[in-house]
Amino acid sequence: MSDVKRPVLEEADRQASRFGKTRSAQSSALLEDYAELIDDLHASAGEARPTDIARRLGVSHATAIKTIARLKREGLAMGAPYRGVFLTEAGQAMARRVRARHLLVVDLLCAVGVPREAAEQDAEGIEHHVSEATLAAFARFLGG
Q1: Rg of the chain in Å (alpha carbons)
Q2: What span, in angstroms and rounded, lies between the C-alpha atoms of 22 and 18?
Q3: How many angstroms separate the CA atoms of 97 and 44, rounded?
Q4: Would you say 71 and 34 are in contact if contact means Cβ atoms under 8 Å apart?
Q5: Residue 50 CB contacts under 8 Å (≥ 6 apart), including other chains
Q6: E strands within 1-131?
Q7: Closest CA to 38 of 54, 58, 20, 18
Q8: Alpha-carbon span 31 to 85, nearest angstrom
Q9: Longest pairwise C-alpha distance within the chain
């Protein structure tokens, strides 16, 4: 292990800013995943019920309800008791942005030799943490 070169610590404010951006991305990643799934469910099944959302995300019904309530508070979704969940225009815009990022990350990973299934799985984490500058570089690399 002595071969591993330790990086020089960067200035504290810069490092704190970088870690802050990561925490913010983690916080919004959950809402982005829900928005994307709700949009997909509407497109394929015509509705997005909390039960279906919970099952597809592998969470409990209570967890899905809690996150859906957060989407509603943040103006990204709406719904009524005993009805499905619907995205607002802001929620639909978020779903489109997330889907585009996801597809770009998958395409980049596949272009560098990652098998499609692994690329899809890895993109689920990466898509929430890449900057716009990195996404633009990915698009340039892919010729787009």
Answers
A1: 18
A2: 7
A3: 19
A4: yes
A5: 61, 64, 65, 68, 84, 85
A6: 77-79, 85-87
A7: 54
A8: 13
A9: 60
Q: Where are the domains of the chain?
A: 13-141
- What fold characterizes domain 13-141? Arc Repressor Mutant, subunit A (1.10.10)
From first to last of its 144 residues, what are the pLDDT tens digits of the chain?
567 787 777 777 776 666 666 556 566 889 999 999 999 999 999 999 999 999 999 999 999 999 999 999 999 999 877 789 999 999 999 999 999 999 999 999 999 999 999 999 999 889 988 889 999 999 999 996
- pLDDT for res 34: 96
Q: What are 140's two structure tokens?
A: 């340039």
- Tokens 């960067």, residue located: 10
Q: Rounded CA gap, 1 and 60, in Å?
A: 42
